[in-house]
Design a protein that fits this description.
By secondary structure, the chain is α/β, with parallel strands linked by helices. The chain has helices at 3-14, 34-46, 49-55, 61-64, 70-73, 92-107, 137-143, 146-162, 192-208, 251-257, 260-268, 289-299, 321-331, 342-354, 360-377, 396-409, 438-442, 462-469, 518-528, 549-552, 567-573, and strands at 57-60, 78-81, 116-119, 167-168, 218-224, 246-247, 272-275, 279-280, 283-284, 305-307, 336-337, 411-415, 427-431, 475-479, 492-500, 531-539, 555-558, 587-588, 604-606.
């Protein structure tokens, strides 16, 4: 989609209209390129069964590092870094060195087919120390700005490619319908049309980046399909409650609510789709032949590659691994994220082919798709990607866009003349664990899979940002974590409390009653007693019960999981930027009688689209 189309979509979105995708708006990726098809055919005809199955196998870094010779010996087609699987030291250069070493092995195989390296750069290249970390998708949903999201996707692709990585398992196009889900923040919204518009923005930005040699980062629409529609208590994973659960919907509703973003992104030219751990009406997505083969590949015409989720083939219910693998491959999965089970996967699949349970035609279709995508992104002509712009990772220019993104993603829920701050020689008090904690400010999928606590990566916390931004004559007092009493006795003009969720990813964030912590509410009361105006800033991956905060705070700001550039928040508090964010999810009063979307009128605290706009 061109930038002018993005501008138009932003105007429509900001005016509350969400445009339908224009039919046939496909790009290069969606049309067969005869030259590529000829190369794929020629290569496929030379390949042994072992080489074909190797291409269908994706191994994680920690596993392949135990037997690096397997890259060559087993013709491994792809390696990934799971969340937090970083080289040591965790620097952009050592990432580039690591991926180069793996690729060197792959290109020394008989046919020299390059491997494709994947990572979850879901809010910037979050695994890499020093990369810029953008707001998670829930915040970008509040921005309503596909043009901004396109810029973010392009920067993310540049930082990913700069570390020699070719594949980003992003964007998640989840239409998240239950705020108890630990992956709500990975979705842009509860609203399908908003998810469509912003996912298209991301994809156009991702596809607009090319390396010096014209190569592209492979994007992934995930998790196919209906991952955001699961119900509480239905998880197939005993560790979780709703993540990896069941989506009980009619086909009509599945098609109306969850399928449209895939149709859009296929038209945009997305080249990979990741299958969801979840099930639809109790049928596992990882073996759903109708939805993968007939709908995604047939009806929607998807000719890229379908990848499983992490061990998703093995984690289904079922008699044994052979039957699970047989069902998944025959259902249309092309590449298996086999992780530490890769040797089993390879030997089981080979036996399934030799015994006719998986036809060679299915193997050839899978490998054809994998080779096609590798040609299309430019991997054969440019297997290393870095082309020397590692120093751009975390650059000031990239951080400037993240700062803008934070300003546009925060939502002003309540304001009794508290923000923006004004006047001379003001006295500020800043409190709350989240006020000076990069880990809480970034959330999950940052440096580590589950995120972290404290100074996990460079950037500006809210406190840092306020300290460098306040006008001359103003003072800031920071009530540090663990410090019980506020110094002195006089009154502050503005008391700011940051209440933060502890970081989490995936099902570890599944929660029956997401709510502000009692200690944060007690701190809010303490700060209120010493402030003329009290401002509550919430760092969370979803709307949470605010309990009595409404009676304590003069202003309430949903900042979501904003990322490394805290200046984006101080810009708002000090009036350098206006509040423009709008809720991408309905904000309930309570989770006591909450059953997911839609939230009943009498349980709605702030409706979808709410957000006080300032000048
Ligand atoms: C995870 C997630 C998926 C991610 C993959 C690789 O379990 O479900 O979103 O891309 O594994 O990290």
């Amino acid at each position: 989609m061109s930038v002018s189309a993005l501008k138009m979509s932003r105007l429509l979105i900001m005016s509350g209209f969400y445009f339908m995708s224009s039919p046939g708006s496909g790009s290069a990726g969606g049309k067969p390129n005869l030259d590529v098809e000829k190369k794929v055919d020629s290569l496929l005809n030379q390949m042994s069964l072992d080489e074909k199955i190797g291409q269908m196998t994706q191994v994680n870094k920690l596993s392949i590092d135990k037997n690096p010779q397997h890259i060559k010996e087993l013709y491994i087609g792809s390696i990934l870094s799971g969340g937090g699987e970083s080289p040591r030291p965790n620097t952009p250069q050592s990432w580039a060195d690591m991926t180069r070493a793996y690729q060197q092995q792959a290109t020394e195989t008989r046919l020299g087919i390059p491997l494709i390296y994947g990572v979850d750069a879901v809010h910037g290249h979050g695994n890499v120390y020093g990369a810029v970390v953008f707001p998670h998708n829930i915040g970008l949903g509040a921005s309503r700005d596909p043009e901004l999201i396109a810029k973010i996707a392009k920067i993310t692709s540049k930082e990913v490619a700069a570390t020699g990585i070719h594949w980003n398992f992003s964007p998640a196009v989840s239409v998240a319908r239950n705020l108890r889900w630990g992956r709500t923040y990975e979705g842009y919204s509860e609203n399908t049309e908003l998810v469509r518009a912003l996912s298209k923005g991301y994809t156009s930005g991702l596809l607009s980046f090319t390396t010096e040699k014209g190569s592209r980062v492979l994007g992934t629409a995930k998790h196919f399909v209906g991952d955001g529609g699961t119900v509480w208590g239905s998880s197939h994973n005993s560790q979780f409650k709703i993540d990896q659960g069941d989506t009980p919907l009619s086909e009509q509703d599945l098609r109306t609510i969850h399928l449209p973003p895939y149709k859009d992104l296929i038209e945009e030219g997305i080249q990979s789709v990741m299958v969801s751990y979840s099930s639809w009406n109790q049928e596992f997505m990882h073996r759903h032949g109708y939805l993968i083969q007939d709908v995604l590949k047939g009806e929607l015409g998807f000719d890229g590659l379908v990848v499983s989720d992490w061990l998703g083939v093995f984690w289904q219910d079922g008699e044994n691994d052979a039957i699970k693998i047989e069902n998944s491959i025959n259902a249309g999965i092309d590449m298996v994220m086999a992780v530490d089970r890769y040797a089993d996967f390879i030997s089981i699949l080979k036996n399934l082919v030799l015994t006719g349970r998986v036809p060679m035609s299915r193997i050839d279709d899978a490998v054809r798709r994998i080779l096609r995508v590798k040609y299309r992104v430019g991997l054969f002509s440019d297997p290393y990607y870095t082309s020397g712009f590692t120093e751009e990772v975390g650059s000031a220019a990239h951080r400037k866009v993240a700062r803008e993104a934070i300003s546009k993603s925060a939502v002003l829920l309540k304001n009794n003349n508290a923000v923006p701050f004004s006047g001379k020689n003001r006295r500020l008090l800043v409190a709350g664990k989240g006020a000076n904690n990069m880990g809480l400010q970034c959330g999950g999928w940052t440096i580590n899979w589950q995120g972290g606590d404290g100074d996990i990566t460079p950037g500006d916390t809210l406190l840092n940002a306020m300290q460098v931004s306040i006008p001359n004559g103003w003072t800031i007092n920071h009530l540090a974590e663990g410090q019980k009493e506020i110094d002195g006795t006089d009154l502050y003009d503005y008391g700011v409390v940051v209440a933060a969720e502890d970081p989490y990813a995936e099902g570890f964030g599944d929660k029956l009653q997401p709510q502000l912590k009692d200690e944060d509410l007690a701190l809010l009361a303490q700060v209120k007693a010493r402030s003329k105006k009290t401002i509550l800033i919430i760092y969370s991956g979803r709307p949470v019960e605010i309990k009595n905060a409404d009676s304590l705070a003069d202003a309430i700001i949903a900042a979501w999981l904003p990322g490394t550039e805290g200046l984006g928040l101080s810009d708002l508090l000090l009036g350098f930027k206006p509040f423009t964010g709008k809720l991408p999810y309905t904000w309930p009063k309570s989770f006591a009688n909450y059953e997911g979307y839609p939230v009943s009128q009498d349980n709605t605290l702030f409706p979808f689209g709410h957000g006080i706009q300032t000048q």
